[in-house]
Amino acid sequence: xxxxxxxxxxxxxxxxxxxxxxxxxxxxxxxxxxxxxxxxxxxxxxxxxxxxxxxxxxxxxxxxxxxxxxxxxxxxxxxxxxxxxxxxxxxxxxxxxxxxxxxxxxxxxxxxxxxxxxxxxxxxxxxxxxxxxxxxxxxxxxxxxxxxxxxxxxxxxxxxxxxxxxxxxxxxxxxxxxxxxxxxxxxxxxxxxxxxxxxxxxxxxxxxxxxxxxxxxxxxxxxxxxxxxxxxxxxxxxxx
Length: 240
Fold this sequence. Notes:
Strand order of the largest sheet: 5-6-7-3-8-9
CATH class: Alpha Beta
Helix content: 25-40%
Largest sheet: 6 strands, mixed
Strand content: 15-25%
Number of domains: 1
Number of strands: 9
Number of helices: 8
Radius of gyration: 18 Å
């Protein structure tokens, strides 16, 4: 059994993010709770990546406030963020994971066993000694997930991790995400793929021009969207 979640619920209370005269997120109020994955969807430029950076604590809102488990300014020790194009360290696959374990404070004597388990979990055990930068795109995303899971996160944030992957690599990544969610980790994942929403989402947060238009169960979003923008998005129309 996992320890009780520390960073949830994650609460956005009228959160705005601006850069100069540009509004990136506009008065976002939402509660992210434990449970099945929440997928953040919307057109390009809607603010999905910025929302994830705020969830992680990599950026601070210019208006409103964010709390993690009722706490403000909580250290992100049990959060992890995987970018769409993760940077691989100039070392082996196993050494990339070992570095993440060290950063997470895992004692040296425990790291080798943890590395083996994590690489097995993401299907990279046979590539442990390969230089990470020689992996395929899908393999690099699985390694990035292993590094994130090394932090033993309560909250796993994923920024379109399958955007440039082929169907087989996408399935491998989705299997890892699904297993992480089933283990009790809360997954918040940005995506533009409605098929992925159907396969993974428990809830959907739909963003347009930095504002949350819907935050509902995936079934309701897909089958009975309540706003014109969401209905257009589900139909496959362009939303700007």
